[in-house]
Amino acid sequence: MPSTIRVRAQAGDTVTEVQALIQHPMDSGFVKDSNGVLIPPHHIETVTFEHNGKIILTADWGPAVSKDPYIKFSFKGGAKGDALTVTWVDNLGKTDMLEAKLA
Amino acid sequence: MKRFVVFIALAALAAPASAATQAEAEVALAAAKQAEAEAAKYDNRWVPAEAALKAAETAVAQQAWDTAVAEANKARAMGLRAVEQSKEQETAWHDAVIR
Amino acid sequence: MSHRRTVRWLVVLAVCLFGGAASPPDSSTPAADQKAFQDYFRSRFPGVPFADFANGPYAVDAAMRKQWEEIMQFPPYDFALDEGKTAFAVKFANGKSYADCFANGGIGVRQNYPYFDTKTGDVVTLDLAINRCREANGEKPLKYGTGMMASLTAYMAETSRGKSFDIKIPDDPRAREAYEAGKQFFYTRRGQLNFSCASCHVTAAGQRMRGDILAPAIGILAAFPIYRSDWGSMGTIDRRFTTCSAQMRSVPLPPQDVAYRNLEYFLSYMGNGVPISGPGTRP
């Protein structure tokens, strides 16, 4: 099962820039399908980014975020080769995780 | 007096019907379908014309003759205009070509 | 005979001789059309390098381009592209695969589509070729517009990225007819809104249509299939043609209808020289 997470993290002199694209339907629960039936809510609740085992960013998403969400942020520090872990959990309890290294 | 009575009688006959009949609805629907079929020959059925046609068919099924006639007439008018549009465009398109 | 009657007969004669033809043929050649088309857009958008027309609205609007460059750091079509690459390699039940149906195994060939098949006498688009391949090998055809068809064509387009459109019109009256039909479709007004493709993508190219910037027609197919943010999913040329028709309030034709294939043939030929930029992303 291919990962739903793609991540790119570039370590700079003082700052590391992280980008991630996550494959997820992000159904809000308010949209109807072509037959007029409500599509049940199915969206990521939390995304966690860890750097060398320490949580550096927690994102609380929910129904307002669109399909296949993209996130970009920077943090101070980080060096090439450091471990970066991305984890998400959705409202149905599903989850995925990816381990990457800073470039 | 006689002329007055004749006048009243004629006026009563000429008074518009307050509701359409089933026959009128079916005639209108048939005319609308024909107009849309013509437009289909040019691959130029208009989305709102199809919607009006569907509404007319639903109205006939519900025996709402006034609505049926109104929607069918709308569909027919659009169908006829679509055919006109396609016929005009058969020559008019040349004017738009980049040369 | 009275003077008036004579005049009337002369008018009738003139109309019979010179008018009355349902669609007078256009007198130019495809090559001349193409030159006029390309010259028009070059002079209309002098600041745009020719190859950049492959990027549609981003070539003609700086603000949109900036947003596009940000999105392209992580292209939203990535998932479909991966899915297409994997699926392309999977063998059919009979042991054959897509590679057996295409020149060069289907790698780096997208810029040659559509082409006119002199054997079947019709225009073959990439999507149609994929389904003809499937059916020839005992597989069910894929639905057009999105899904796996978009993923497969995304992969095939990616292998052609940067290669210029090279559409050919063979010396065959049927091919010429298909081209002319496509040309007529492009310029013909239709639907309740009375627009033609040219209304938006020639006359109003580069201008706003509500929140969007209208792409110039030249090379407009280069980025397909696209991940369109509006759709939240992938879409092929079929998806765009059918939704555009509906937006003109003209009932769309079925995907891969002969009229749409002819249109794609004309449009692609007009874009010869523009590089493939697919799969792409659009607002």
Summarize the structure.
With 103 residues, chain A is an all-beta fold. Chain A has no helices and seven strands. In chain A, a hairpin with a 2-residue loop joins strand 3 and strand 4.
Keywords:
heterotrimer; A: 103 residues; mainly beta; Immunoglobulin-like; four-stranded antiparallel beta sheet; three-stranded antiparallel beta sheet; 7 strands; elongated; B: 99 residues; mainly alpha; 4 helices
What level of helicity do the residues of chain B show?
A: over 70%
Unreliable spans of chain A are: none
Taking all Cα atoms into account, the compactness measure Rg of chain A is 15 Å
Q: Quaternary arrangement of the chains shown?
A: heterotrimer
CATH homology superfamily of chain A: Immunoglobulins
Tell me, rounded to a whole number, the average pLDDT of chain A.
Answer: 94
CATH top level of chain A is Mainly Beta
Instruction: Tell me the distance between the termini of chain A.
Output: 25 Å
Q: Point out poorly predicted stretches of chain B.
A: none
Instruction: Give me the Rg of chain B, rounded.
Output: 20 Å
Mean pLDDT of chain B: 90
The number of helices of chain A is 0
Percent of residues in helices of chain A? under 10%
Biggest chain-to-chain interface with counts: B-C, 21 and 27 residues
Strand order of the largest sheet of chain A: 4-3-6-7
What is the global morphology of chain A? elongated
The H-and-E topology of chain B, N to C, reads as HHHH
